[in-house]
Every structure is written in C-alpha cells, then in structure tokens.
Amino acid sequence: MTSLPESTESVADVACTVCGCVCDDLTLHLAQGKLVQADRACSLALPWFEELDRHRPPAAKIDGDAIDYAEGIAYAAKVLASSRSPLIYGLSRSSTEGQREAVALAEKLGATIDTTASICHGPSIMAIQTAGESTCSLGEIRQRADLVIFWGVDPQTTHPRHLERYSADPASEFLPRGRTDRTLVVIDTKPTATSDVADVFIQVDKEFDFELIWKLRQSLRNDNAALQDDTIRQLHELMVGCKYGVIFFGLGIAQQSLGHLTVDGLLRLVAELNDHTRFVARRMRIPGDVSGADNVLIWQTGYPFSVNFALGYPRYNPGEFSANEMLERGDVDCALVVGSESLIGFSDAAMQRLAEIPTIVLDYPHATPTWSPTVQFTSAIYGYHTIGTAYRMDDIPIPLRKVTTSEYPTDAEILAAITQAL
Ligand code: SF4
To answer: What is the pTM of this model?
Structure first.
C-alpha cells in the first residue's frame, strides 16, 4: 500500500455511483481537498474519481462563453419558456433531490421527461409491468443464493465488484464457504470475462434466448421433448435443484428485438420456478442512479420513464414519449439534459436534432458534451461534493456522503432556480 502524507484526511464509507452496484465501502484519502487515493475503487471507479478534481470549468456558459451563473439561469428560463415542446432527459447519475426538481420543472413546463431507462432497461420495465417480478435485495442474494445465473450480462466488465460483494465470493450463514458453495452460470452469445470465472457457460445464438426461456418453461411442465435437449436438461436440473436461485439479466436480453417479450418470458419462468424452489430475477442496471430516476418518476408521476405533461397531467407511452424517438421525429424544440453522458446510445438522427435546437445541459466538472449546448451549467457531484441519495440496482436507497467542498451548485439547485425564474 502507498504511504500517504501526514496531512491526508480520510473519509470512510463513501458510496461510488459509477455503476448500479453503488458500493458504499470506499475510503477516499484527500490532501488539501484533492483526492490522492481511493481504496476499494475498482477499475471503472478509479479513473472516474481521479478525474474529479482535474477540471474547473465556469459555473455557466452561453454558446461556449463563460457567463455569470444568475445570467445563465435567466437565459435558460427564457429558452424553456419560449419552447412549445420541451424535453428533459438524463438523470441517471443525479440524486433523488435533482430528479424531484426535474419532475417539478417538467410539470410546470408541460414538458416530456425521460431517463436513460428508455434506451437501456425500458423493455424490462415494460415486462415487469405485465408479468410482475419475483425479487429481493442484493443482501439476500449475498446471504442465500447458491445458484447465480448471469444472462446477457458481463458484470466482470460492467460491474467489476458485483461478484466480490454480492453474487459469488461472500461467505454467509447459509453459504459458509462462499464461492465454493455457489454455482455460477453464464448464458451469453460469446465468451466473456464473467464466463471465464463461471462454473457453467452456455453459449446461445443471438436472439435464441426467447426460445431457450420457453423450452425451460416447458421443461418445468415435465415436457419430455424439452428435456431431451442437453442444455435444457442441464439448466433445468440446476434450477430446480438449488435452494435459492437468481437470474441477473442485462441488456443482452432487454435490448434484443422484442426484448420486452423475452424479459416477460424470463420473469414468468422465474415465477414458475417458485413452485419448485426459491427463485428471483434482478436487472443489472448500468449507471449509478438510474434506479433512483425510475423510483422518483414513479412516486411523482405514477410512471417510470417516458412521461409527458403536455395535457397538464402525466401520460406514459414508451416510443411516443421516449427522448431518442421524439428527437428523431423532430417532436422536440428544446432539450434540457441532466448529465450529457446519458446521451450515449442515441441515434445519429437524434443527436443531429439536438445540435439543431436550443439545449441546456447540466454537467459535472469533468464531463464534456459532444456538441455545443446553448446554455451549459457545471453541477456538483453527489457523493463527492455534496450529500445525496442513490438507488442501488436492487432499488435500495444508499446515502451519499460529502467528501470535499465545491463552488458549484447541485443540479437540484440549478433546476429549482430555473423553475423559479420561469
Ligand atoms: S463496482 Fe461499480 S459501484 Fe462498485 S466501485 Fe466499481 S464502479 Fe463503483
């Protein structure tokens, strides 16, 4: 371990919001307010933390020129007030406070509000609305799950501490030998870093998952034709033979063509497995607080994403009110984006439209939009510059600590100021 200077301050139990694991056991060491070491930060988190103090952009800019913060607020309010169909988008690395203010602003404007769920696990959320979900916390999985299936997801790459903290390694009262007491299965279209450490790897053809799920459902009805297939028999025996099974599923399933039907089938399979043993399913959420965005939108509007307030009350319709599709169709004449990294995954046509209309971006000091927004604000980072709340991928709210001070306001403060200025 590197020896730290004596003047170093250490802050323990810091939560990381880089991915949906929201690991809350990091210790950050700071010298003169600057980060010098981050204990237990993984290969994804470390570069993110290292960038935090390196940039000090102006608090506000208009067309790329630094301006006074108050002037930026007044200008943003003017731009939004003159819009007939504004869009508010992003929010997946925000916090409950910022998400709540974004909904209030959307309601006041009669805007559409959408989150990164609409280009990630939107199909899974739609499937949960039709099929329900047999679910649990990651803590329960850590304690009890002796069969862990990763389906269409590679956590060793996307959530590097998932296996260590929740799904493979921890020893518990029910699994005293940790990894030895668990069977790890990976189902994917190609070998991955996670399949390399799994006990069983089942390689499926692209878009074959739906068929595999339905054959497994058949096998639970003792259908001999399904059980004659070696892969189905192997999975069937593992599933009905475990004491507590979990399927973690990712975008490899949700983002297929008709992904909502594939996830619907998967959730029904998991529900039916509960006739034989305890079984649960969990989505692998990617950004740190995308689950928080779902939760806040649900409390405040009744719907998780793609919500439109144009008629004065919330309406939900993925596709019609999804940010990417609205931009592609030219249905939006102004956009406010909270976290420009949330635009990764937008189509070229949607990005082209964003470059044509007035845009307001709230971004962190180290983030840079790929186009020039009309108005740009720099916001403090929850869990580093300020306190907040992030929802882990299992919908458990995790408090975020303040590690150091910042001259930047939070996105909640910026959004509240814009709402007041309207
Ligand atoms: S696994 Fe995710 S939440 Fe945990 S330290 Fe790594 S990036 Fe952060």
So the answer is: 0.93
